[in-house]
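Hallway conversation turned thread

IA: we were arguing at lunch whether anyone had actually written out K(+) efflux antiporter 2, chloroplastic, variant 2 end to end. Turns out nobody had. So, for the record, here is the sequence (224 residues) and right after it the structure tokens. Reply here if something looks off.
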Amino acid sequence: FSRSYSSFVILCFGGILLQTDDLQDHIIICGFGRVGQIIAQLLSERLIPFVALDVRSDRVAIGRALDLPVYFGDAGSREVLHKVGAERASAAAVTLDSPGANYRTVWALSKHFPKVKTFVRAHDVDHGLNLEKAGATAVVPETLEPSLQLAAAVLAQAKLPTTEIAAIINEFRSRHLAELTELSEASGSSLGYGFNRPMTMSKAKSQSPDFSDDNQVSDGTAAI
């Protein structure tokens, strides 16, 4: 697997990308935390080319130790996105830690690289709506499935039958997604699991992005 990326990038001191011309139809993973790492694993197992960005040195070290294309860089920066070939990327998965950083990255991708489809996790419904206004292609609520898994474990401890637990969880999931679908129809958003509207629908642009909660590169951190 590691050899499949050898032609994609050439690095020099400080993590600066010298060449990204060979990157084509790749995925940009913005944030290499637990969610980003899972996405990277799924992509790498299928030899789907990707590049991951993070501003935490420990996360980058994890990726590099696995010989994965993970680099220091602020995913909300137009320059950084350009250096990882965003203009030729097929999609971006935005999984940064803070709502503001996610918003800023979605806005940057939508504004500067509008052909890139952006898939982003949302902290809650309000955050998801703001992400869609910033130009997200699809928004996924981050709390639903983990909450359902935890609830299932608690119900199992309460000695409910497995079949009954499954029915309870499925009913709640269906009801919750139905509520999100109703909200999406009323608001024109694709909230839910993000696939209620055509993927080719033009992205809305935010008029006044709030970058107060940026996931900025800290002092001394090398950036792409």
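OS: looked through it. Residues 62 and 70 are 9 Å apart (CA to CA).
IA: good, adding that to the notes. The chain is about 40% helix and 15% strand.
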